[in-house]
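Hello,

Our lab assistant flagged a job as stuck in the queue for most of the afternoon. It eventually completed. Since we weren't sure the result was trustworthy after the delay, we are filing this so someone can double-check. Below is the sequence as submitted and the structure that was eventually returned. Let us know if re-running is recommended.
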Amino acid sequence: MVKPITVYWACWEDTWMRASKPELVSKRFYSKGIKDTELRSNMGINFCPAFNRSLKNLYAVKSVYDYSFTIENNRCVSELYDQKFFDTHVLIRSLEKRLFSFNNKYLFFTDEKSLEMTALLHPTFEENAIAERCMPISGSFDIGKWFRPLEFPFVLKKEFDKFILNDQDVMYYVRFHTDQPIVLKQFFVSDRLVQFINGTLATTHSKLSKLGTLDDIYALFKPKNLILREINQNLL
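-- returned structure --
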């Protein structure tokens, strides 16, 4: 029997209780009825091993907010929440290039020695405003060797001036690069875990940082056992 891998996950937002467990994309896709019982049917994509392998350990991550902003007169305007929410959740990387980040802070971590995760993949099989309007910028890192929240960087397509995010819409996909099954366990982000998060972020964002590669970052990561102990004390 193949040993499953435990992946701990959390949403580090005030509205964290609205966060739903990441869902297998294969389950979501095939629930649309795009499959057949006959092997040689034109609709029998569920029999394609190459396609099914592309869905292996691919999970959909949902938003916990309704939010939107519009580009008007070379600035971003939103009628939802307040300026503080905008400042803490929206990063304007380049208005000219329509490059932004939206903070909807999910965390993934594992007790395995190493597990590569690719995050922020385009939600290809979703029918929502993110899939229609945004080009997410994906990236990979080892969730067995680093502890940091995800943000959602994206390019707003040129034919749209409004970013729209609906509560419980899938924002992006995450892929765990393993053939072993994944067991997801949710945890609460305690004050102690926030200290670890701030420490890892400060390490990479410091102006004094000379870290050039992910391996440089991983070499500095020392508190894994302390983080796992705290996570296990805050499982939901």
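-- support follow-up --
The delay was a queue issue, not a problem with the job. The result is valid. The domain at 5-185 is CATH 2.70.40 (Deoxyuridine 5'-Triphosphate Nucleotidohydrolase; Chain A). The chain is about 25% helix and 30% strand.
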